[in-house]
Design goal:
Blueprint lengths: L22 E2 L10 E4 L4 E4 L12 H12 L5 H5 L3
Antiparallel strand pairs: 1-2, 2-3
Length: 83
């Protein structure tokens, strides 16, 4: 897997991008493992181990972001109880 220089050669450093709210792996663009799009920075990048824009993607933060981006869909309330 390709990683950013912020990870150095230390395999124990935590890879932040895959668990970040702003990460989009973009598999449709065939960029390869470890490369994706950072929504916050508006760049295609390798997975980073240090980032001032990192925000952990919890279920509630992801739901709020999706609601902000895509709006509410009819019937969203019924599915809230199922989660």
């Amino acid at each position: 897997m390709t990683t950013h220089s912020s990870c150095g050669s230390d395999p124990t450093k935590k890879r932040l991008c895959p668990i970040c709210l702003h990460w989009d792996p973009r598999p449709e663009e065939m960029t390869g493992p470890g490369i994706g799009y950072c929504i916050e920075r508006d760049i295609v990048t390798m997975i980073r181990c240090e980032c001032e824009d990192f925000e952990e993607a919890t279920k509630s933060k992801t739901a709020a972001r999706n609601k902000r981006l895509y709006g509410e869909f009819e019937g969203d309330e019924e599915h809230e109880d199922e989660r």
